[in-house]
Design brief:
The chain is mostly helical. The chain is built from 26 helices and no strands.
Length: 478
């Protein structure tokens, strides 16, 4: 019996050890570790580079496979749902996935395109479109989609797009191409995407980029891919070398300059950082993203309000619909004291995005800086009708109420803010002040005691405490 127990504990220990090793090995994406027969099969197939079978096994594990005899019926249902609700992106993605599974790549591609017409930033739709183009052998366009994909934050929400990509990668690796440079570059791009999910795959990016360069030494995107990988690995000198080589081939590669600027910023070469950012803006003067990033760096890192305003204005004028450009530009206008211009920018946000509460809160904050508190309150309340106020917005609204001597509403909003951040001493101290203004000294005393519990050396609370104690003793004695 003891021997069986010992064997059992040894097995448990080994299983825990294997689980710990696998969990660490696959830390970038826990979807790889699925403890089921299909999950284990998928993992083994993936490790051996059999991506199609890995995709198939993971589909089986997640219950995402389709019965072939039901495909037409499901297709009709999803097509009907799209007609009923043409703005719902999820329906397009479901239909595109079904078509991709059935290897109807032309119609899958067309459906992903329709999804992107509804939402040009839909990450899953871009992954799906790139995968469909790979599966169809349309490598040049797939590279363009990947370029677009890499320039936005990874926001993959549907596992099916990842599984479809694995199928497309499997087809790509088995393809025979006469144009070797395109073939290897496409593989480098594909593995660059896979590297976002599984960092180990970045090694493949280097391998296929080098093969593309051997086939054609004037292929700047291959040098660029290598530079991206080396930067992620914090091999900054090697990254700069590869971006420089990309620029030798293509001096108009603005993104290479921007990536070099990022590296120079990391290593503290501020002069080179700004030089490269400005070069990127000069090359792509009609693309607002470069001007915005330069303006943002000038604002955040250097505090150069005038130069930041110049570049942020440029980004805003090129695309006034982008909230990030508008809000950042408006902020610099406020800091330069050009309040009326800032209000005009915020009015533009409100007009174009009336359901975005931030347009109203930006305008409200601007009115606070202008000491126009009644108007600030009005726009905070407009924002509150759309979405609950954030902690910072609530604090600003409470301050505005206090300025117009509406202390009861100020107290109510401060209490709301404290439900979001219960231990914020600044809010508690403001609340203590409001209580005192209304003669509610017991409430003020409790607020001060709470402040000193959280932050015993708070000087304002230390000064207020004796006064409040004396006041309360006087009231009790009388």
């Amino acid at each position: 019996m003891k021997k069986i127990s010992k064997i059992f504990f040894i097995i448990v220990f080994i299983v825990i050890g294997i689980y710990h090793f696998i969990s660490h090995y696959y830390k970038p994406d826990p979807r790889f570790i699925q403890f089921s027969p299909y999950g284990l099969k998928a993992l083994i197939c993936y490790e051996f580079g059999n991506y199609r079978d890995a995709s198939k096994a993971w589909r089986a594990h997640y219950g995402l496979s389709y019965e072939y005899n039901l495909i037409e019926g499901i297709k009709e249902t999803l097509t009907g749902q799209i007609k009923e609700n043409p703005n719902k992106i999820e329906n397009y993605l479901l239909l595109a996935d079904l078509l991709f599974f059935a290897e109807d790549y032309p119609n899958a591609i067309a459906t992903y395109r329709k999804a992107l017409q509804k939402d040009g930033d839909a990450y899953d739709a871009k992954v799906g479109l790139a995968s469909g183009l790979l599966a169809q052998g349309n490598y040049q366009e797939s590279l363009s989609v990947f370029d677009d994909l890499f320039n936005q934050s990874a926001d993959e929400r549907s596992i099916t797009t990842f599984l479809n990509f694995l199928v497309a990668l499997n087809r790509l690796e088995k393809a025979n191409m006469s144009n070797k440079e395109d073939f290897y570059l496409t593989l480098a791009y594909a593995y660059r995407y896979l590297g976002i999910i599984d960092n180990r795959k970045y090694k493949k990016v280097i391998i296929f980029s080098d093969k593309a360069i051997v086939a054609n030494k004037n292929i700047d995107r291959a040098f660029f891919c290598k530079g991206v990988v080396y930067t992620k690995e914090k091999k900054y000198d090697m990254g700069l070398e590869q971006f420089s080589k990309a620029l030798e081939v293509n001096p108009s590669n603005a993104e290479a300059y921007e990536r070099m600027a990022d590296i120079y910023g990391e290593v503290g070469n501020l002069e080179k950082e700004l030089e490269c950012y400005k070069k990127a803006v000069e090359i792509q003067e009609n693309k607002p993203g470069y001007a915005f990033r330069l303006g943002d760096v000038l604002l955040r890192k250097y505090g150069d309000m005038k130069q930041a305003n110049f570049y942020l204005k440029k980004a805003y004028e090129l695309d006034s619909n982008d909230y990030s450009y508008a809000s950042r530009y408006g902020f610099t206008l406020e800091m330069l004291g050009r309040f009326d211009e800032a209000i005009h920018v915020y009015d533009n946000i409100i007009q174009k995005q009336p359901e975005n509460p931030h347009g109203y809160t930006l305008k409200a904050d601007c009115f606070i800086r202008m000491k126009r508190y009644e108007e600030a309150i009005h726009f905070f309340l407009k924002a509150k009708e759309i979405y609950p106020l954030s902690f910072n917005d609530a604090r600003d609204l409470a301050l505005a109420y206090a300025e117009v001597k509406n202390f009861e509403d100020a107290i109510s909003i401060d209490q709301y803010a404290l439900r979001i951040k219960p231990y914020d001493v600044d809010t508690l101290y403001h609340l203590h002040y409001l209580y005192r203004r209304l003669g509610r000294n017991e409430d003020a005393y409790r607020a001060v005691v709470e402040i000193l519990r959280i932050q015993p050396n708070h000087s304002g609370a230390q000064r207020a405490l004796p006064y409040l104690q004396m006041n309360l003793r006087t009231r009790k004695s009388s």
